[in-house]
Amino acid sequence: MPALNSNAARLATRLAFFVGGFGLSCWAPLIPFMREKLHLDPGVLGTLLLCLGLGSVSAMVMTGAISARFGSRSIIILSGFSLAMTVMLLPVAESTLQLAITLLFFGASLGSLDVSMNLHAVEVEKASECSLMSGFHAMFSVGGFAGSAIMTLMLSLHMTTFSSALGSAILLAVLMLATWPRLSQTPKGEHGQLFSLPRGIVLILALLTGIAFLVEGAMLDWSALLITDAGLVPTAQGGLPYIMFSIAMLSGRFMGDGLSNRLGDRRVLLWGGIVAVLGMFIAVHASSALAMLTGFLLIGAGASNTAPILFRLAGAQTQMPTGLAVAAISTVGYSGVLLGPALIGFVAQQIGLPNAFIMLALLLGLVPVFSFMITKK
Questions:
Q1: Rounded Cα gap, residues 275 and 91, in angstroms
Q2: Is residue 189 domain-resident?
Protein backbone atom coordinates (compact mmCIF):
# COMPACT_ATOMS: atom_id res chain seq x y z
CA MET A 1 0.00 0.00 0.00
CA PRO A 2 1.55 3.37 -0.98
CA ALA A 3 2.70 5.77 1.73
CA LEU A 4 0.66 8.93 2.27
CA ASN A 5 3.51 11.11 0.98
CA SER A 6 4.07 9.03 -2.16
CA ASN A 7 3.29 10.02 -5.74
CA ALA A 8 0.89 7.08 -5.95
CA ALA A 9 -1.16 8.39 -3.02
CA ARG A 10 -1.34 11.84 -4.62
CA LEU A 11 -2.45 10.33 -7.92
CA ALA A 12 -5.10 8.23 -6.20
CA THR A 13 -6.46 11.31 -4.43
CA ARG A 14 -6.62 13.23 -7.69
CA LEU A 15 -8.40 10.33 -9.39
CA ALA A 16 -10.93 10.09 -6.54
CA PHE A 17 -11.73 13.81 -6.87
CA PHE A 18 -12.03 13.42 -10.65
CA VAL A 19 -14.48 10.53 -10.22
CA GLY A 20 -16.58 12.59 -7.80
CA GLY A 21 -16.77 15.58 -10.14
CA PHE A 22 -17.43 13.44 -13.20
CA GLY A 23 -20.20 11.42 -11.58
CA LEU A 24 -21.92 14.47 -10.12
CA SER A 25 -21.87 16.44 -13.38
CA CYS A 26 -23.36 13.58 -15.40
CA TRP A 27 -26.67 14.47 -13.79
CA ALA A 28 -26.80 18.10 -15.02
CA PRO A 29 -27.39 17.47 -18.76
CA LEU A 30 -29.97 14.79 -17.94
CA ILE A 31 -32.22 17.13 -15.93
CA PRO A 32 -34.07 18.77 -18.85
CA PHE A 33 -34.66 15.36 -20.46
CA MET A 34 -35.94 13.80 -17.22
CA ARG A 35 -38.13 16.84 -16.59
CA GLU A 36 -39.69 16.42 -20.02
CA LYS A 37 -39.94 12.64 -19.78
CA LEU A 38 -41.68 12.64 -16.38
CA HIS A 39 -43.47 16.01 -16.78
CA LEU A 40 -41.89 17.52 -13.69
CA ASP A 41 -42.76 21.02 -12.48
CA PRO A 42 -40.21 23.01 -10.40
CA GLY A 43 -41.79 21.90 -7.11
CA VAL A 44 -41.62 18.18 -7.95
CA LEU A 45 -38.10 18.58 -9.30
CA GLY A 46 -37.13 20.31 -6.06
CA THR A 47 -38.56 17.37 -4.10
CA LEU A 48 -36.53 14.94 -6.20
CA LEU A 49 -33.36 16.92 -5.57
CA LEU A 50 -34.23 16.86 -1.87
CA CYS A 51 -34.18 13.04 -2.07
CA LEU A 52 -30.70 13.27 -3.57
CA GLY A 53 -29.64 15.56 -0.74
CA LEU A 54 -31.16 13.45 2.02
CA GLY A 55 -29.36 10.37 0.77
CA SER A 56 -26.11 12.27 0.64
CA VAL A 57 -26.37 13.88 4.06
CA SER A 58 -27.32 10.61 5.74
CA ALA A 59 -24.34 8.89 4.16
CA MET A 60 -22.00 11.78 4.98
CA VAL A 61 -22.74 11.67 8.70
CA MET A 62 -21.94 7.95 8.84
CA THR A 63 -18.98 8.22 6.47
CA GLY A 64 -17.38 11.02 8.42
CA ALA A 65 -17.55 8.95 11.57
CA ILE A 66 -16.32 5.72 10.00
CA SER A 67 -13.55 7.32 7.94
CA ALA A 68 -12.28 9.47 10.79
CA ARG A 69 -11.87 6.39 12.97
CA PHE A 70 -10.94 3.59 10.58
CA GLY A 71 -9.48 5.41 7.58
CA SER A 72 -10.97 6.38 4.24
CA ARG A 73 -9.57 3.88 1.74
CA SER A 74 -12.36 1.28 1.72
CA ILE A 75 -15.07 3.97 1.75
CA ILE A 76 -13.59 5.62 -1.35
CA ILE A 77 -13.52 2.28 -3.17
CA LEU A 78 -17.08 1.25 -2.32
CA SER A 79 -18.65 4.65 -2.93
CA GLY A 80 -16.80 5.12 -6.24
CA PHE A 81 -18.15 1.91 -7.73
CA SER A 82 -21.61 2.61 -6.33
CA LEU A 83 -21.55 6.01 -8.03
CA ALA A 84 -20.81 4.39 -11.38
CA MET A 85 -23.76 2.05 -11.00
CA THR A 86 -26.27 4.75 -10.01
CA VAL A 87 -25.22 7.05 -12.88
CA MET A 88 -26.21 4.27 -15.25
CA LEU A 89 -29.61 3.86 -13.55
CA LEU A 90 -30.67 7.53 -13.53
CA PRO A 91 -32.23 7.68 -17.03
CA VAL A 92 -33.87 4.26 -16.58
CA ALA A 93 -36.46 5.67 -14.16
CA GLU A 94 -39.99 5.45 -15.55
CA SER A 95 -41.77 7.23 -12.71
CA THR A 96 -41.19 9.98 -10.19
CA LEU A 97 -40.90 7.37 -7.42
CA GLN A 98 -38.26 5.38 -9.30
CA LEU A 99 -36.24 8.51 -9.97
CA ALA A 100 -36.54 9.54 -6.30
CA ILE A 101 -35.16 6.18 -5.13
CA THR A 102 -32.33 6.29 -7.66
CA LEU A 103 -31.41 9.83 -6.64
CA LEU A 104 -31.40 8.73 -2.99
CA PHE A 105 -28.71 6.11 -3.72
CA PHE A 106 -26.93 8.45 -6.14
CA GLY A 107 -26.70 11.04 -3.36
CA ALA A 108 -25.51 8.48 -0.83
CA SER A 109 -22.70 7.41 -3.14
CA LEU A 110 -21.65 11.03 -3.73
CA GLY A 111 -21.80 11.89 -0.04
CA SER A 112 -19.68 8.94 1.03
CA LEU A 113 -17.10 9.61 -1.66
CA ASP A 114 -16.92 13.34 -0.96
CA VAL A 115 -16.24 13.02 2.76
CA SER A 116 -13.77 10.14 2.50
CA MET A 117 -11.75 11.69 -0.35
CA ASN A 118 -11.45 15.00 1.50
CA LEU A 119 -10.16 13.23 4.61
CA HIS A 120 -7.70 11.34 2.42
CA ALA A 121 -6.65 14.64 0.81
CA VAL A 122 -6.03 16.37 4.16
CA GLU A 123 -3.78 13.54 5.33
CA VAL A 124 -1.88 13.35 2.04
CA GLU A 125 -1.29 17.12 2.11
CA LYS A 126 -0.03 16.97 5.69
CA ALA A 127 2.31 14.05 4.94
CA SER A 128 3.63 15.79 1.83
CA GLU A 129 4.33 19.04 3.76
CA CYS A 130 3.31 21.19 0.80
CA SER A 131 0.10 22.84 -0.37
CA LEU A 132 -1.95 20.41 -2.48
CA MET A 133 -5.60 21.03 -1.61
CA SER A 134 -6.47 23.41 -4.45
CA GLY A 135 -4.87 20.98 -6.90
CA PHE A 136 -6.96 18.11 -5.55
CA HIS A 137 -10.14 20.17 -5.81
CA ALA A 138 -9.07 21.19 -9.31
CA MET A 139 -9.42 17.56 -10.32
CA PHE A 140 -13.01 17.65 -9.09
CA SER A 141 -13.51 20.55 -11.51
CA VAL A 142 -11.76 18.59 -14.28
CA GLY A 143 -14.17 15.76 -13.64
CA GLY A 144 -17.09 18.17 -13.60
CA PHE A 145 -16.09 19.63 -16.94
CA ALA A 146 -15.41 16.21 -18.48
CA GLY A 147 -18.64 14.64 -17.25
CA SER A 148 -20.86 17.51 -18.38
CA ALA A 149 -19.02 17.90 -21.69
CA ILE A 150 -19.10 14.19 -22.56
CA MET A 151 -22.75 13.81 -21.60
CA THR A 152 -23.72 16.96 -23.52
CA LEU A 153 -21.77 15.79 -26.57
CA MET A 154 -23.39 12.36 -26.57
CA LEU A 155 -26.87 13.81 -26.12
CA SER A 156 -26.22 16.40 -28.87
CA LEU A 157 -25.31 13.49 -31.17
CA HIS A 158 -28.81 12.14 -30.48
CA MET A 159 -27.64 9.19 -28.41
CA THR A 160 -30.27 7.99 -25.97
CA THR A 161 -30.04 9.12 -22.37
CA PHE A 162 -29.39 5.52 -21.27
CA SER A 163 -26.57 4.99 -23.77
CA SER A 164 -24.97 8.24 -22.70
CA ALA A 165 -25.21 7.34 -19.02
CA LEU A 166 -23.94 3.81 -19.62
CA GLY A 167 -20.84 5.09 -21.38
CA SER A 168 -20.13 7.45 -18.51
CA ALA A 169 -20.67 4.70 -15.94
CA ILE A 170 -18.18 2.41 -17.68
CA LEU A 171 -15.56 5.16 -17.67
CA LEU A 172 -16.15 5.76 -13.95
CA ALA A 173 -15.66 2.07 -13.20
CA VAL A 174 -12.39 1.99 -15.15
CA LEU A 175 -11.13 5.04 -13.25
CA MET A 176 -11.96 3.40 -9.93
CA LEU A 177 -10.02 0.29 -10.96
CA ALA A 178 -7.01 2.57 -11.50
CA THR A 179 -7.58 4.36 -8.18
CA TRP A 180 -8.01 1.29 -5.97
CA PRO A 181 -4.40 0.00 -5.71
CA ARG A 182 -2.92 3.50 -5.29
CA LEU A 183 -4.98 4.57 -2.28
CA SER A 184 -3.27 4.76 1.10
CA GLN A 185 -4.82 3.97 4.44
CA THR A 186 -5.21 7.23 6.34
CA PRO A 187 -4.37 7.29 10.07
CA LYS A 188 -7.06 5.98 12.37
CA GLY A 189 -8.67 8.45 14.71
CA GLU A 190 -9.12 8.25 18.45
CA HIS A 191 -11.64 5.98 20.12
CA GLY A 192 -14.69 7.67 21.56
CA GLN A 193 -16.56 10.47 19.86
CA LEU A 194 -16.70 9.89 16.13
CA PHE A 195 -18.61 12.97 15.02
CA SER A 196 -19.11 16.42 16.47
CA LEU A 197 -21.17 19.42 15.49
CA PRO A 198 -18.91 22.27 14.34
CA ARG A 199 -18.06 24.86 16.97
CA GLY A 200 -15.98 28.01 17.20
CA ILE A 201 -14.21 28.92 13.99
CA VAL A 202 -15.17 25.52 12.56
CA LEU A 203 -18.81 26.62 12.71
CA ILE A 204 -18.01 29.64 10.52
CA LEU A 205 -15.94 27.49 8.16
CA ALA A 206 -18.83 25.05 7.90
CA LEU A 207 -21.31 27.83 7.12
CA LEU A 208 -19.12 29.27 4.38
CA THR A 209 -18.39 25.80 2.99
CA GLY A 210 -22.13 25.17 2.80
CA ILE A 211 -22.59 28.39 0.83
CA ALA A 212 -19.66 27.61 -1.48
CA PHE A 213 -21.01 24.19 -2.32
CA LEU A 214 -24.56 25.48 -2.55
CA VAL A 215 -23.30 27.64 -5.41
CA GLU A 216 -21.75 24.59 -7.09
CA GLY A 217 -24.95 22.63 -6.60
CA ALA A 218 -27.02 25.44 -8.09
CA MET A 219 -24.75 25.55 -11.13
CA LEU A 220 -25.15 21.80 -11.55
CA ASP A 221 -28.89 21.50 -11.08
CA TRP A 222 -30.30 24.83 -12.25
CA SER A 223 -27.92 26.46 -14.74
CA ALA A 224 -29.28 24.40 -17.64
CA LEU A 225 -32.83 25.43 -16.82
CA LEU A 226 -31.89 29.10 -16.35
CA ILE A 227 -30.45 29.37 -19.87
CA THR A 228 -33.01 27.13 -21.63
CA ASP A 229 -36.02 28.75 -19.93
CA ALA A 230 -34.67 32.13 -21.08
CA GLY A 231 -34.72 30.79 -24.64
CA LEU A 232 -31.03 31.52 -25.20
CA VAL A 233 -30.01 27.97 -26.25
CA PRO A 234 -31.87 24.77 -27.24
CA THR A 235 -32.46 22.05 -24.66
CA ALA A 236 -29.68 19.80 -26.01
CA GLN A 237 -27.13 22.55 -25.24
CA GLY A 238 -28.37 23.16 -21.71
CA GLY A 239 -25.12 21.84 -20.25
CA LEU A 240 -23.11 24.78 -21.67
CA PRO A 241 -23.35 27.03 -18.57
CA TYR A 242 -22.04 24.27 -16.32
CA ILE A 243 -19.23 23.60 -18.80
CA MET A 244 -18.22 27.29 -18.65
CA PHE A 245 -18.48 27.24 -14.87
CA SER A 246 -16.35 24.09 -14.69
CA ILE A 247 -13.67 25.53 -17.01
CA ALA A 248 -13.33 28.59 -14.77
CA MET A 249 -13.28 26.46 -11.62
CA LEU A 250 -10.60 24.26 -13.15
CA SER A 251 -8.38 27.17 -14.15
CA GLY A 252 -8.79 28.94 -10.83
CA ARG A 253 -8.03 25.88 -8.75
CA PHE A 254 -4.93 24.96 -10.71
CA MET A 255 -3.64 28.44 -9.85
CA GLY A 256 -5.06 28.42 -6.33
CA ASP A 257 -2.10 27.18 -4.30
CA GLY A 258 0.18 29.69 -5.98
CA LEU A 259 -2.28 32.53 -5.45
CA SER A 260 -2.66 31.71 -1.77
CA ASN A 261 1.11 31.63 -1.35
CA ARG A 262 1.54 35.03 -3.01
CA LEU A 263 -1.57 36.92 -1.90
CA GLY A 264 -2.66 35.07 1.22
CA ASP A 265 -5.89 33.19 1.83
CA ARG A 266 -7.72 36.35 2.95
CA ARG A 267 -7.29 38.23 -0.31
CA VAL A 268 -8.18 35.20 -2.40
CA LEU A 269 -11.42 34.73 -0.44
CA LEU A 270 -12.23 38.46 -0.50
CA TRP A 271 -11.73 39.22 -4.18
CA GLY A 272 -12.87 35.79 -5.33
CA GLY A 273 -16.18 36.26 -3.52
CA ILE A 274 -16.69 39.70 -5.07
CA VAL A 275 -16.03 38.39 -8.60
CA ALA A 276 -18.41 35.46 -8.08
CA VAL A 277 -21.24 37.71 -6.88
CA LEU A 278 -20.72 39.99 -9.89
CA GLY A 279 -20.89 37.00 -12.20
CA MET A 280 -24.15 35.86 -10.62
CA PHE A 281 -25.84 39.19 -11.31
CA ILE A 282 -24.54 39.20 -14.90
CA ALA A 283 -25.92 35.70 -15.51
CA VAL A 284 -29.34 36.57 -14.11
CA HIS A 285 -29.74 39.74 -16.17
CA ALA A 286 -28.17 38.43 -19.40
CA SER A 287 -30.07 38.97 -22.64
CA SER A 288 -27.81 36.79 -24.79
CA ALA A 289 -26.18 33.39 -24.48
CA LEU A 290 -22.71 34.96 -24.60
CA ALA A 291 -23.49 37.31 -21.70
CA MET A 292 -24.93 34.53 -19.57
CA LEU A 293 -22.00 32.21 -20.25
CA THR A 294 -19.63 35.06 -19.32
CA GLY A 295 -21.47 35.37 -16.03
CA PHE A 296 -21.00 31.68 -15.31
CA LEU A 297 -17.29 31.97 -16.12
CA LEU A 298 -16.97 34.74 -13.52
CA ILE A 299 -18.89 32.71 -10.94
CA GLY A 300 -16.56 29.74 -11.45
CA ALA A 301 -13.40 31.86 -11.37
CA GLY A 302 -14.41 33.76 -8.25
CA ALA A 303 -15.64 30.75 -6.28
CA SER A 304 -12.94 28.33 -7.42
CA ASN A 305 -10.64 28.47 -4.39
CA THR A 306 -13.17 29.10 -1.66
CA ALA A 307 -13.72 25.45 -0.72
CA PRO A 308 -10.03 24.37 -0.89
CA ILE A 309 -9.02 27.26 1.39
CA LEU A 310 -11.80 26.44 3.86
CA PHE A 311 -10.72 22.79 4.02
CA ARG A 312 -7.11 23.88 4.54
CA LEU A 313 -8.19 26.19 7.37
CA ALA A 314 -10.15 23.34 8.94
CA GLY A 315 -7.03 21.18 8.92
CA ALA A 316 -4.96 23.96 10.49
CA GLN A 317 -7.35 25.09 13.28
CA THR A 318 -6.89 23.82 16.84
CA GLN A 319 -10.37 24.14 18.35
CA MET A 320 -11.41 20.66 17.17
CA PRO A 321 -9.50 17.50 16.18
CA THR A 322 -8.67 17.63 12.49
CA GLY A 323 -10.62 14.53 11.55
CA LEU A 324 -13.77 15.70 13.31
CA ALA A 325 -13.44 19.22 11.90
CA VAL A 326 -13.02 18.00 8.31
CA ALA A 327 -15.91 15.56 8.69
CA ALA A 328 -18.11 18.31 10.16
CA ILE A 329 -17.48 20.93 7.46
CA SER A 330 -17.70 18.23 4.80
CA THR A 331 -21.14 17.25 6.03
CA VAL A 332 -22.39 20.83 6.29
CA GLY A 333 -20.66 21.82 3.05
CA TYR A 334 -21.98 19.00 0.94
CA SER A 335 -25.39 19.48 2.49
CA GLY A 336 -25.21 22.83 0.72
CA VAL A 337 -24.39 21.34 -2.66
CA LEU A 338 -27.09 18.69 -2.44
CA LEU A 339 -29.84 20.01 -0.17
CA GLY A 340 -29.54 23.64 -1.24
CA PRO A 341 -30.57 23.16 -4.88
CA ALA A 342 -33.76 21.49 -3.69
CA LEU A 343 -34.57 24.61 -1.67
CA ILE A 344 -33.81 26.72 -4.75
CA GLY A 345 -36.47 24.72 -6.56
CA PHE A 346 -39.09 25.61 -3.96
CA VAL A 347 -38.01 29.27 -3.97
CA ALA A 348 -38.06 29.32 -7.79
CA GLN A 349 -41.61 28.04 -7.78
CA GLN A 350 -42.65 31.02 -5.65
CA ILE A 351 -40.60 33.93 -7.06
CA GLY A 352 -38.99 32.56 -10.24
CA LEU A 353 -35.60 31.03 -10.94
CA PRO A 354 -33.78 34.34 -11.71
CA ASN A 355 -34.81 35.77 -8.33
CA ALA A 356 -33.68 32.57 -6.63
CA PHE A 357 -30.25 33.11 -8.18
CA ILE A 358 -30.19 36.67 -6.81
CA MET A 359 -30.83 35.31 -3.31
CA LEU A 360 -27.95 32.91 -3.90
CA ALA A 361 -25.71 35.85 -4.81
CA LEU A 362 -26.55 37.56 -1.52
CA LEU A 363 -25.57 34.44 0.40
CA LEU A 364 -22.33 34.20 -1.54
CA GLY A 365 -21.53 37.73 -0.41
CA LEU A 366 -20.94 36.35 3.11
CA VAL A 367 -17.66 34.80 1.94
CA PRO A 368 -15.78 38.09 1.47
CA VAL A 369 -17.47 39.53 4.58
CA PHE A 370 -16.18 36.73 6.85
CA SER A 371 -12.80 36.42 5.13
CA PHE A 372 -11.25 38.82 7.64
CA MET A 373 -12.45 36.76 10.61
CA ILE A 374 -11.27 33.31 9.56
CA THR A 375 -7.84 34.12 8.12
CA LYS A 376 -4.66 35.59 9.60
CA LYS A 377 -3.53 37.12 6.32
A1: 36
A2: no
